[in-house]
């Protein structure tokens, strides 16, 4: 965590640009609510307001910037069409609004893009081209096609018109909750925080702007702080897993952002789970990054009035289920216990009696006789179980040990 030094520069995007964008896009996007979360406020020690951008039609704020860009194209550019490289929310937002406006749209996606994302984007009327292994490969090819066919590139973040559109998120948040004194905004390419930071720094009072990146992809953190932390790995926050942030956004962030923090996968998982359990809302990993920062650095935000955009809700259902189950395990409500037994009749029965006495539900039982370091007559049994909370699990383990069993919990990463 490092505080950024702000240079004196001519703004690339101004508050007037964002206000003009707000007027343009207002008729065609959802004015999503900004609501107080009493439970998260109690949990974090701050006053927490959430903006539910996951309620946009394509479930992400990206519609705002894409639409602002499209609405400023002249008739000739609209007739030729637009092109973008994206495997995520930008693709769907651009495709949806381009189709609605009658503008032909081409989206170049990496070859390995999940089929569900391809089909969703096609469903909005886009022509899909699969090319390259990474988004950078897709972008290079999109530029080739744009030059050949006279198409307008709509970059997902490195474009002043797109940035101004994303900044409308902050315009609405401050209209709804003027008391916000801190914005916590996810950073991928940097479009959203550039727009929100532009709005925040133009107010007549101090509003702190904090960016959040996944620990596995600290690209903007590196750019701002002169570090060389590695950018790679499988992150839950795939929407902000960007290796090369934008040049335009980097210049704006240096001017309008106060700090950038990094969050681990564990806090991202916890944030996604808490938002579903407490707010009853589905948020993708990138969209939950703001809350993840509050969980990771509670002292940093204690006592502040915090605004967090929940910037997207496009998460694979299977991945979401996995995140929720892992969170239950970390809280002690689900557990796998490894128990050493003697291989004799009734051994499992006697163990199950302890579970019954402690009113713990057994979900799965796994026997391991062969691949074990125990003697031939030894046996390892893994039992997955469901408890009320961590204290209940602890009572179960003490009861098993009192009966002479050697018990080890199987921990999550």
TrEMBL record:
Belongs to the serine/threonine dehydratase family. It comes from Sphingomonas vulcanisoli. Its EC number is 4.3.1.19. The lineage of its organism: Bacteria, Pseudomonadati, Pseudomonadota, Alphaproteobacteria, Sphingomonadales. Its cofactor is pyridoxal 5'-phosphate. PROSITE patterns: ACT. This is Threonine dehydratase. PANTHER family: L-THREONINE DEHYDRATASE CATABOLIC TDCB, THREONINE DEHYDRATASE, MITOCHONDRIAL-RELATED. Keywords: Lyase, Pyridoxal phosphate. It comes from the Bacteria.
């Amino acid at each position: 965590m490092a505080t950024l030094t702000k240079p004196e520069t001519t703004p690339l995007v101004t508050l007037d640009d964002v206000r003009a964008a707000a007027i343009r896009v207002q008729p065609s996007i959802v004015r999503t609510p900004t609501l107080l979360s009493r439970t998260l406020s109690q949990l974090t020690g701050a006053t927490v307001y959430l903006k539910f951008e996951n309620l946009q039609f394509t479930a992400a704020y990206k519609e705002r910037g894409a639409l602002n860009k499209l609405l400023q194209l002249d008739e000739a550019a609209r007739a030729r069409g637009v092109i973008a490289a994206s495997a995520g929310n930008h693709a769907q937002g651009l495709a949806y609004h381009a189709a609605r406006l009658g503008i032909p749209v081409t989206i170049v996606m990496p070859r390995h893009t999940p089929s569900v994302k391809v089909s969703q984007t096609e469903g909005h009327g886009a022509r899909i081209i699969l090319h390259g292994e990474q988004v950078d490969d897709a972008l290079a090819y999109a530029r080739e096609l744009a030059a050949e066919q006279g198409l307008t590139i709509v970059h997902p973040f490195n474009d002043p018109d797109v940035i101004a559109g994303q900044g409308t998120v902050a315009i609405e948040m401050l209209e709804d909750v003027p008391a916000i004194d801190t914005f916590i905004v996810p950073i991928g390419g940097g479009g959203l925080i550039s727009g929100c930071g532009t709005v925040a720094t133009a107010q007549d009072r101090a509003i702190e702007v904090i960016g959040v990146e996944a620990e596995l992809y600290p690209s903007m953190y590196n750019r701002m702080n002169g570090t060389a932390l590695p950018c790679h790995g499988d992150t839950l926050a795939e929407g902000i897993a960007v290796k090369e942030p934008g040049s335009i956004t980097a210049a704006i962030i240096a001017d309008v952002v106060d700090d950038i923090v990094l969050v681990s996968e564990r806090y991202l998982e916890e944030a996604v789970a808490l938002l579903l359990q407490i707010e009853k809302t589905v948020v993708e990993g990138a969209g939950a990054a703001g809350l993840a920062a509050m969980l990771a650095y509670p002292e940093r935000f204690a006592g502040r009035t915090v605004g967090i955009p929940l910037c997207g809700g496009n998460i694979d259902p299977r991945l979401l289920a996995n995140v929720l189950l892992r969170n239950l395990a970390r809280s002690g409500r689900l557990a796998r216990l490894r128990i050493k037994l003697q291989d004799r009749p009734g051994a499992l029965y006697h163990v199950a009696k302890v579970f019954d006495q402690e009113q713990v539900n057994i979900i799965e039982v796994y026997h391991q006789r062969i691949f074990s370091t125990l003697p031939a007559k030894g046996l390892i049994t893994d039992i997955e179980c469901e408890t009320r909370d961590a204290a209940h699990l602890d009572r179960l383990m003490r009861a098993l040990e009192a009966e002479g069993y050697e018990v080890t919990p199987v921990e999550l990463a």
